[in-house]
Amino acid sequence: MGEKKIGVFLCQCGGNISKTIDLDAVSQYVETREDVDVVKIHSNMCSGAGQKMIIEEAKEKGLNRIVIASCSPHFHEKTFKGTMEKAGLNPFVLELVNLREHCSWAHKDQPEIATEKAKDLVNAGVNKVREDYELAKKKIQMGNRVLVIGGGIAGIQAALDLADTGNQVYLVEKEPTIGGKMAILTKTFPTEDCSACIISPKMAAAQDHPNITLLTNSEIVRTVGHRLLFDITVEKKPRYIKPEIDMDQCLICEQCVQECPVSAPNKWEQGIMQRKAIYIPAALAIPFNYLIDDTVCLHFKDGSCNKCETVCPQQVIDFSQKPERIQFIVDSIIVATGYDSVEPSEKPMFGYDKFQNVVTGLEMERIVDHITENPPPRPVGKRIAFIQCVGSRDEQIGREYCSRVCCMYSVKLASLLKQAKPDKDIYIFYTDLRAFGKGFEEYYKRAQDLGIKFIRGKAAELYENHENKKVVLKAEDTLSRQIIESEFDLVVLAMGLKPNDSTEKIVNFLKLTKSSDGFLQEAHPKYKPVDTNIEGVFICGTAQGPKDIPDTVAQASAAAARVMVTLAQKEFDVDPQLAFVHTDICDGCQKCINACPKNAIVMKDGKAEVVEALCIGCGACIAACPVEALDFHNSTNLQMYRTVDGILEEKNPEENRLVIFADNTCTYRVADALGIRKMKYDIDARIIRVPSSARITTNLIVHAVKMGADAVVLGDCPAASSQFPWSREVAEKSIAAAAAILENEGIEGKRIYFEEFTAGDLVKFTTLVNGLGAQVKQFTRITEQQRKDI
Amino acid sequence: MKIPYFPGCSLKTYASGFEKSAIAAGKALDIELVELPRWNCCGVVSSLTKDDLMHHLAPVRNLMRLSDMKTSGLADEDKRLLVLCSMCMNTFKRTNLKVRENSEDLATLNDFMYLEEAKYDGSVDIVHFLELLKEYGFDKISESVNTSLAGLKVAPYYGCMLIRPKEVGIDDAEEPTIFENLISSLGAEPVSWHAKNQCCGSYLTVNKQDTVIKLTRRILDNAQQEKADVIVTSCPLCAFNLDSRQALLQETNPGFEPIPVLYFTQLMAIAFGLDAATYGFEKNKVDPMPLLNKKVFI
Amino acid sequence: MAKKIKLDDKTQAFQKLVEDLCGQNTAKCDQCGTCSGGCPFVEDMDITPAELMRKVMLGQEDVLESETMWICATCNTCTVRCPRKLDVSKIAEALRQIRLRNEIDQLDIGKISREEIKELPQIALIAALRKLSS
After folding, report:
1. CA-atom Rg of chain A in angstroms
2. Which CATH number is associated with domain B2-129?
3. Is position A645 within any domain?
4. Cβ contacts of residue A501 below 8 Å, gap of 6+?
5. Is A321 on the interface with C (CB under 8 A)?
6. CB atoms A389 and C81 under 8 Å
7. How far is A529 from chain C (nearest CA, A)?
8. How many domains in chain A?
9. 3-class SS at B41?
10. Which chain A residue lies closest to B197 (C-alpha atoms)?
11. Span B201-234, pLDDT tens digits
């Protein structure tokens, strides 16, 4: 770009800045710098007139570096980047200096010192802009191929929405039929419509849809991640039935099933019925076809049986089938892996494994579904108790969360049973009955109308009466303060929901994050509820957290819509403000590769190389690099040093400076918010905006102290809400190393530390900064000699 | 293996059969129980309030006594203290928890006993004999069995102190298996019963006998419903309530059939075929011999 | 007649007194009754363990008149089951201690006959004396 020509534009902000800060003094100060070509003041830089002035000055004077000192970049960064483009300049050779929130508003009552602070801030901005260089946005092309993992109601809904809008969908389900848990349920609350009747048309539609490739009995075994470009490998287990070719297809004639001598518990019926080794998984299975359970089939056990093969008129039995691997590429993924019921063995005091008349909620779904058969496959007796919150809201087993559906499914099962068999005497033992959804409270009231009795007390333990096999339940009726110890013919444990093993596998494949309850973590709980930390991967249904069917369907459609929005862009921009490698310095030590949480660094010709499609710009590699070969576009090591230099250049030896490296998401915004509210804090504070605290190297911290900082703070978001949750760990390592260096020179190591801020931690920030300002005054002043010796 | 061992008051008096059989059974496995020098009562129960340090003096004073057991050649180790009595174990472990979590409390306790030669640094682990047997290996224990206990139905009684609270328990608080594993390794049949973790009434046997009778009745009934021949325990207080209190039970319930209560070490001594003098049945109130003669020594 | 509760500085102070002694936060209690339902002693108690928890949370000093804390023998069944991980046995201990520190004993060894004392093992006597007398 040839000679660097720098223009500095100072904004009065209609007095917001200029009433406190003497901008003329700032202007005169900046003009003394030889490398600044133009300094201009305007009343409203963001206005059309202000922008026009910048554009004209830039064109007229041939400026190729711009500093705008105005409000927080969170207000007008986008505006001024547009200004740059209009001026024919690259938007990355622009630096914004925050004179309003971080200076004039925060230090309203100290105009003179604020003016001096403003000079420091502008000085740092000029220092930084000198080292700016042009960056180009990168574009990556996308197709419209989507993988949906999980064929429950969430996966089916998302797959149909996507397929209907012309996307190519792979729907992968590990069970031999789609339908998931919803297909197992008898009826749904609070409307009591038949669960299978609602879901089976959707199951059929998914199978028949020309845009959906249905892979059942299949599991993801490998994903090679790129954001918005994923290489997927699926393993399809054999059904041992020949695929439908021409006329040789299976006629579902049942002869094989009749001949099969092996009986096993019917998993889909929750074990209340038996099935054969060759079977159709469910009455409404999709695909509707047989498979052979090779874990129980005698042919696979010892080769002693091939009756099904012999009897089959179509000769479609094929014992020789092997697992098959299928590989494909997708642009986006929806994880809809669902949940599992908590294992009853987690609460042994309820004796599920020992007492024959204790069942789980899911078993009760099937029991109730068959209750009107004569005789029912699983009789229930007369007196029935439901125990709520088994495996939910229980810190003893590390499950603090509410499972959200158990209250209503117990009310539903009790109501259905009571309506079918009015002579049943039904009790529901609960701690809190949560009927929060649409129509739930009314449904709960209807259950009371039916005569179902609600007892406010959680059952403590069960034991079995040996003579009659009835179950004795012990609980306190906390409303009457009496102890109940009574026999029941059947006790139903309203088991909570937990994340399942499939979700765990996918988490590991895709490097997704989990929330503290173990379910999948959304990118933001409020405004990105179905996005994840990985671009192009979306979540929905109970894999994200317990929820009922309407919420699941809504979320599935939301996830599908998010995929559509993403893929509709056809290509996507990669923010060029990412890590890069100075290959001339890199010695190939690979420390950055280990430090990168996204596997975004690879070795090429003995040097590290950043894969830009994967890098998310956290800076952890930079802190890890011992030779400063790793660097960050638009916040280079050189720029960081020069910013620090600029901010501290005018410091007098008797003054104090608190340098705060503020992450752009949380800490910087706290300081913005303080300014907006005109809340004061120690004017010695100098805030430097950084992408994350992980980007701050040991050398940079030490450099700050060398140049005059009396304390250094690295601020970042709390890990739980951070886009870079590992920042703190990285930052604390850098801080420890820097502290050790300072201690060596007799400078207190506790002058440097890390602090977490949410964007609302206003008082925390002022308390910290003011406390730090006071504390620094308590320390023995760092001598110039000490600073020199570092 | 020579391991420091804390007997406690009961094992020297009315639970002497527990100590006698434990020493003999240990010897058969080449585990020598070396009595802690100058030990004192552990205090039996732990104080649960935050400010009450006085009641932690007794356990700490015992734990100080281990300091030179290894250097003096008395034992092979000085960082583990073997305990047999469940109550002692619980009290020791709770004190250890407290002083390990709170170094100021430990300093105060040490200061209070400034005349002692050694200081306690919180580094001694309390090991119950059952834990040591698990470490030794139940499979290996089977190799020492010389008398068949086949067909003997044994109800393992854990009570409270062995498994609760979770921080000091030696096994799962709801579904412990360590006793069952030992019983199986000895060739007997462990009985599955729900009263195995239920409280016997503990020290209320002093002032609320009716309560204790009610609780022991529940436990003994359940053992008999499950066709147990004998109950084993590792707590002298449980043994008192379950064994000695059967006389009271019989007074009030004429039809009640007594059931012997043994310490698990007594069952080990029998299974190992040791000299009958080591069984230490003198203090057992419900005489186990008729049952053993019928089922074991045929 | 229904009893009236007045919540004031006094009730708050009593709650704090108990909580400071035992290090438990009674406000956490969900009143699910798991402690009571599994308590082996509950039949002999005048108020259930969950009610005891409630009274402490609401600072009701009449909880000190209850028999419940003297019947609790710290079997810890409730402790290992409480879904909020509250240690009810520690709260009972704190209540006992408040009484005992005011020298209100529950056990007068002088009233037990010599034969009975002779029969009782020291493990029972010492435990009872430590838990039931000052």
Report:
1. 33
2. 1.20.1050.140
3. no
4. A340
5. no
6. no
7. 29
8. 6
9. coil
10. A349
11. 999 999 999 999 999 999 999 999 999 999 999 9
